[in-house]
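#struct-queue
[09:14] JT: dropping the first one here, sequence first, then the structure tokens:
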Amino acid sequence: AMGTFVDVGCGAGPIALTLALRSPAATVVATDPNSRARELTTENATANQVSVTTLHPDNVPADMTVDLIWSNPPIRIGKQALRELLTEWLRRLSDHGVAILVINRHLGADSLHRWLETEGWHVLRLGSRSGFRLLSVSRPHD
């Protein structure tokens, strides 16, 4: 797969590395406000000989368009901040871009699903695993 793939809230980078390993032709970007998380992601990418660009969220180019977002979003930042973060990233999706959100079921996955739909996004529940829900979010196509 080609295009720009972003791991939002990358932590030590397991999702970013998986994206890079599975899609070597893609541009993979990992973002996290935590500098230690970014360091670990860079170290892990180097160790696995994959190319991942690690950025502080403030340094993401304003005009970046994204084809795939994977995120285990930081629920603990609070509902309003979380909604702002998701809105900021979802508006970067290309026409056929998809965001995959991994959310703890007990931390409001269902209310987030409903809110995304009221915002006009197309949301599919891909399934649940061990207390987590996977939501696929994309632009509606009539």
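[09:21] JT: and here's the second one, same format:
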Amino acid sequence: MKKPLVASFLLLLGSMAHGADRPAAPSSVPLDRSCDRACLYRSLDGFLEALRQRDPWRTTWSKDALYSENNVAMPLGEGLWGTLTRLESYDLRLADPSNGQVALFGAVNERGAISPLVVRLVVRDGAIHRAEVLVRRKFTEPRMMADPKFEKKPVFDEVIPVQDRLPRARLISIADGYFDTLQLNDGTLFTQFDDLCNRIENGVQTTNNPEMKQTSPSLAMGCAEQFRLGYFRYDDRLRDRHYDLV
């Protein structure tokens, strides 16, 4: 069996309003490369512990820190800080020391309701400068088809040997090609898919999943097969793309 190709993990975050189809310009936030990977993960752990305690002041913030939840700017301590029951154990994290950013894919429990969680932090001089949180709650998303499952995927923890890594720009172009393929999907593939590619959406596997076939026959197909059918033609625009971590 062919082993899945995982060259990098790219995180796409940002506002999805008022923009062009192509990737947005790089953030104007000045780069800070003084925080290495271990440092960035410490900042993330500090944020998560503060969230568990529902007290944002248990971690360090810059004087001009910005916080948003589901693309809405809000004061620290509001939103998820007041509704969280606990953080679930799922913890898929990545850091990019080249631009001082760190992120987490996880899950939150709010009074028994479990939802996918994404956190992105911009760290400057050892303090959190920006924090972006996304929570995909099932009661606000009628199209979520099944209960989410959050399972550790060891392939994401593999370290690709330096000689086998693709250049940063190429990795971004591959990811951007995915969204080009999804946008106005007419059956043309603008990126590359491994033969064993699977897609997980909000904790639900939406490719090669025969259990979901009654919901839609396409859910039993592979990534490339779905796109070649033009299954996502209803997605007529994917805008304001920017790639914060590579």
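[09:30] RK: nice, looked through the second one.
[09:31] RK: The CA atoms of residues 21 and 60 lie 36 Å apart.
[09:31] JT: good to know. The longest strand covers residues 113-124.
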